[in-house]
Amino acid sequence: MNKFALALACLIGTAIPAQAQAAPSDPWAPVRFLVGEWQGGIAGEQGTGKATRRYRFILSSQFLQERNMASFPPQPLHPDGTVASHASFLAYDTARKALVFRLFREDRYNGTYAFSATKSTSTRLVFESVQLDHAPASTKAREILEVISPTEHVEILETAEGDKPFSVHSRIPFKRRQP
Q1: Which domains does the chain show, CATH number per domain?
Q2: How far apart are CA 147 and CA 163, in angstroms?
Q3: Are 104 and 126 spatial neighbours (Cβ–Cβ below 8 Å)?
Q4: In three state form, how does the secondary structure of 40-63 look?
């Protein structure tokens, strides 16, 4: 075998494993549309209210940061009204080969959720809980984003205990805020 053929064989032999282990061309593709500011009306177990949300890439685009503010007017569940906020950070987890987000809430119902490629479609993104802090071990949750258009989506938070079926905890139809 001549030197050229040997060099070519070595290059081909190393290129194939490198391609097989490469990350997707754009791991952010399913959620990239979220970047920007959103507003919506909340309906769920916590009552009715309004939410504003902002998504932006931070730290050299390694994380997608989400900031949420929800306000609830006086109602039976919140006699004096209330304001709640939370933050989350999405990242591409190379070990899982999936987007993962970590949610931080004022009420400490924090959690880690992983993108489920098998349960998701281009218009329905499903993130399933991997770990929920300050919740019974049998509790599970999932966040579903139903993509209506580039300017509208619905976020549904579902929870379940043990073997019980999921039930809707909250539903927020969001519309992109116009600058």
Answers
A1: 26-176 (2.40.128.20)
A2: 28
A3: no
A4: EEEEECCEEEEEEEEEEEECCCCE
> What burial class does residue 162 get, using C-beta atoms within 10 Å of its C-beta: 0-12 exposed, 13-18 middle, 19+ buried?
exposed
| Nearest-5° Cα angle at 5, 4 to 11 | 90
Residues written for the chain: 179
- Is the pTM above the cut of 0.85? no
pLDDT tens per residue across span 80-121: 988 999 999 999 999 999 999 999 998 778 999 999 999 999
By the 10 Å C-beta count (0-12 exposed, 13-18 middle, 19+ buried), 23 is classed as exposed
Which long-range contacts link 71-77 to residues 24+ away (Cβ below 8 Å)?
72/42, 72/46, 72/47, 72/48, 73/49, 75/47, 75/48, 76/47, 77/46, 77/47
- CA-CA distance, 8 to 126, in Å (whole number)? 43
Largest CA distance in the chain: 84
Q: Concatenated DSSP letters for 64-114?
A: EEEEEEEEE-SBTTBTT-EEEEEEEEEEEETTTTEEEEEEEETTS--EEEE
- Identify which has the larger pLDDT, 82 or 12: 82
| Alpha-carbon distance values, 9 to 17, 21, 22 (Å) | 13, 19, 20
